[in-house]
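Human
Can I borrow your eye for a moment on a structure tokenisation matter? Give me a protein, with the fold worked out from its sequence. Write it directly below this note and I will take it from there.

Assistant
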Amino acid sequence: MMRIVDVEIKIPQLPWYGNTEMEFRFSLSWAIFFRLMKGVERKRLTHEQKEKAFLNPFGSIFILELAKRKKEIVILFDEMARPAPVSEILPYKLKEVG
């Protein structure tokens, strides 16, 4: 009987929150393909770049336009699969709605 040895692979996780790794063990009999998330190697945007991006949205209208003639608004952030740096985004959204 032939024993199939496992292989350990470290997969990066939380690329914008400390770049930690999670270790997985797979059988060598598996075909494993590894791809980094698109954009993970890009530099972080500066404050000015973020502000410019929020002042010039594409594919969407401004939140202020959506909130016209409304008494209250609710802004939701985050998605478990792709965590958003809310503390960096929220100031721009609050500035937009005044």
